[in-house]
Specification:
The complex is a heterodimer of chains A (about 270) and B (about 375). With about 270 residues, chain A is of the alpha/beta class. Chain A has one domain: P-loop containing nucleotide triphosphate hydrolases (Rossmann fold). Helices cover about 40% and strands about 20% of the residues of chain A. In chain A, helix 1 packs across helix 2. Chain A is globular and about 55 Å long. The N terminus of chain A is likely disordered. With about 375 residues, chain B is an alpha/beta fold. Chain B has 2 domains: about 90 residues, STAS domain (Transcription Regulator spoIIAA), CATH 3.30.750; about 220 residues, no CATH class. Chain B is built from 12 helices and 4 strands, in the order ββαβαβαααααααααα. Chain B has a 4-stranded mixed sheet with strand order 1-2-3-4, with helices on one face. In chain B, helix 2 links the parallel strand 3 and strand 4. The N terminus of chain B is likely disordered. At the A-B interface, helix 6 and helix 8 of A face helix 1, helix 2, helix 3 and helix 12 of B.
């Protein structure tokens, strides 16, 4: 863990041997990622690596490119410079078919759920499964119901449309879909945004249980301080295109950087 | 128990001194679920016997496979707390516990059969709701129009100008091209007939009447319905999905003044103009064919046209177009406002706009034809 942290800190300019091994064994790794958006460098050499089984959070003010970074890590966009590795493989060197194979190994929870509006919740969860595996209807239904209840969604909601669900239920339905293919890695974009504080804490608890029991590696972006304290093993702070702090919540909360100071002082 | 030990790919049942032992091997993963299911279904256990599940030879275990195992054992009468679990790692134990706690029975939705009565009722209510919402929309539009007439300052000139350009100017190339082509085809086919009687010159009478009275207004209206009608619905529908229409309303503005009236006015102003352009394009196409195919020179063609085509016919063709425009714009804006908050509904509404407005245009045209058959 300490090795990874130092590796991530040093990894920007010249990755040493420790950094190389750390980023290659890590489940998710960014190495010197630079991204230009709207005429400015949103990421100016962002490096970090998340080892297997860790729940890591990316935090930073609005416009620091957290969501863009998540899109780059999942291969939806390409960084202008730098490398992105998933499960040790460099995304830039992958063929589209290989990238799709890799994508079946992780789940992504979009900020607004991105549920298919013309399918019911159960059909949404079944969608990635039926594309991959031929299952008889009763087994498929069993798997879908398991995912829904793992995500903490009442089964009555299974046959409703996403537009008939509340925000919190939509998040849970989207989580169930992200879990459908038994991913090893889960990306979550603002998992608790738009949920009430009680719903948010319940969602964090669900995620923590899933991460521990399913052995998931999780990388999430958040603005929610409670999520950091409840759920997260490690915090990576983005500010002005760089990683300015990286460590456990307690370590990062002690950092002297003014942005981090004011971020943590919002919690009274 | 004397059954021979089961020795397939994923699990093996053995009988020991302390009862039955189920040894799990291989990859217990979602991808292997059908095979796992087949093997688990083949297990025969005498109920009441203590059962040990040994996971020491497991290569991997995921939640779907764990769920299948526990469901199958549950069906055989072994609840989770009655199982003796040995050889599982701490992560797998956690997984089994979580799955045991969250496991849910399969609940396929009750098959809702739509009987005839139910179908009829559903359609009647849908029709009723559609009628009410159409009347409400018409009422709102009329009210907004009355407001605009009493206070002309409410007119959104910018939006009107944008719409005039979008539905009018930008439609000119396609309208000219299509009507020119229709003129060419119509004159060619009519020419073949009149040639048989040596009455080549009569092609001018036929073409002039057909194009200005029916073809140009209809083709133009149909093109505009497909082009601008669909654009109105898709634009307003996407605004509805994105809550932009609500945002306009809470600014204290009327969505009808801001969105609907400029579109209706733009279309009602532009469709007659486009039709006039279409008349000219169609007749030019016909004149070309008459010259090239029938030996009617352009001079003869236009002299004869002036003589035989009364102005009334042309005006009649133009007069009905604002009515077409009104129908297209009202249908398109209404469908746009009726979009629900999902992606599918935008597509459905856009399709409905195109179909309904083309049907409306043809019905209105038929009504005009029946009402004024003798117009000269």
């Amino acid at each position: 863990m300490t090795a990874t942290l130092t590796a991530a800190r040093n990894g920007q300019a010249s990755p040493g041997t420790a950094a190389l091994t750390a980023t290659q064994t890590a489940v998710v790794a960014a190495e010197g990622v630079r991204t230009r958006l709207g005429g400015r460098w949103v990421h100016d050499g962002v490096s970090f690596a998340v080892p297997r089984g860790q729940v890591a959070a990316l935090i930073g003010g609005s416009g620091t490119g957290k969501t863009v970074l998540l899109r780059e890590l999942t291969g939806l966009e390409r960084p202008i410079e730098g490398r992105v590795r998933l499960f040790g493989q460099d995304l830039a060197g992958l063929s589209p078919a290989a990238l799709n194979d890799l994508r079946r190994r992780f789940g992504l929870l979009f900020q607004d759920g991105a549920l298919f509006s013309n399918l019911s919740v159960a059909e949404n969860v079944a969608a990635p499964i039926v594309e991959q595996i031929r299952l008889p209807a009763d087994l498929l239904c069993e798997v879908v119901n398991l995912k829904l209840s793992l995500a903490g969604l009442p089964l009555e909601a299974a046959h409703r449309r996403p537009s008939e669900l509340s925000g919190g239920m939509r998040k849970r339905a989207a989580l169930a879909r992200a879990l459908a293919l038994e991913p090893e890695l889960l990306f979550l974009d603002e998992p608790t945004a738009g949920l009430d504080p009680i719903g948010g804490r319940e969602f964090d608890r669900t995620l923590r249980i899933l991460a521990d029991s399913l052995g998931l590696t999780v990388l999430l972006t958040t603005h929610d301080l409670d999520t950091l304290y409840d759920l997260v093993d490690r915090v990576i702070v983005l500010h002005e295109g760089k990683v300015i702090a990286d460590g456990t919540v307690a370590e990062v909360a002690r950092a002297a950087h003014p942005w981090i100071r004011s971020y943590f002082s919002t919690r009274q | 128990m004397t059954a021979p030990p089961h020795s397939d790919g994923y699990c093996r049942l053995e009988t020991g001194a302390t009862g039955a032992v189920l040894r799990l091997t291989g990859h217990w993963r979602l991808a292997n679920l059908p095979a796992l299911h087949a093997e688990l279904s083949g297990i025969a256990l005498e109920p009441g016997q203590p059962l040990t599940v040994d996971g020491s030879a497991l290569a991997s275990l995921d939640s779907a496979a764990a769920n299948r195992l526990l469901t199958q054992l549950g069906a055989l009468g072994y609840a989770f707390d009655r199982l003796r679990l040995v050889g599982f790692g701490p992560r797998e134990m956690g997984l089994l516990r979580l799955v045991a706690e969250r496991r849910a029975a399969c609940t396929l939705p009750p098959l809702t059969r739509r009987g005839l009565r139910r179908m009829v009722g559903w359609h009647v209510f849908r029709l009723g709701r559609a009628t009410v919402s159409t009347l409400a929309f018409l009422g709102q539009t009329a009210q907004a129009l009355a407001q605009l007439i009493t206070r002309p300052g409410l007119l959104r000139t910018r939006e009107l100008a944008v719409q005039l350009e979008m539905v009018g100017l930008r439609a000119v190339p396609i309208i000219v091209m299509m009507n020119w082509l229709i003129g060419v085809v119509f004159a060619y086919l009519l020419g073949i007939q009149v040639q048989k009687f040596g009455a080549n010159i009569f092609v001018v009478d036929g073409v002039g009447l057909a194009i200005t009275r029916e073809l140009a207004p209809l083709i133009t209206a149909v093109l505009v319905a497909g082009r601008s009608g669909a654009a109105f619905t898709a634009h307003l529908g996407a605004m509805k999905v994105n809550q932009e229409i609500d945002a306009i309303a809470v600014m204290g503005l009327s969505p009808w003044q801001v969105l609907v009236l400029p579109r209706i006015l733009a279309l009602a102003l532009m469709l007659p103009l486009l039709t006039a352009v279409a008349d000219v394009a169609g007749i030019l196409g016909a004149a070309l064919v008459a010259d090239w195919h029938l030996g009617v020179t352009p001079t003869t063609f236009f002299d004869r046209l002036q003589e035989r085509l009364p102005l009334n016919t042309v005006v009649f063709g133009l007069v009905k177009t604002p009515v077409f425009a009104l129908a297209i714009a009202l249908i398109a804006c209404h469908k746009g406002f009726a979009v629900q908050r999902d992606a599918r509904s935008v597509g459905l509404a856009t399709t409905a706009t195109v179909v309904h407005s083309i049907v409306a245009v043809i019905l209105i045209d038929a009504a005009f034809a029946v009402a004024y058959p003798e117009i000269k």
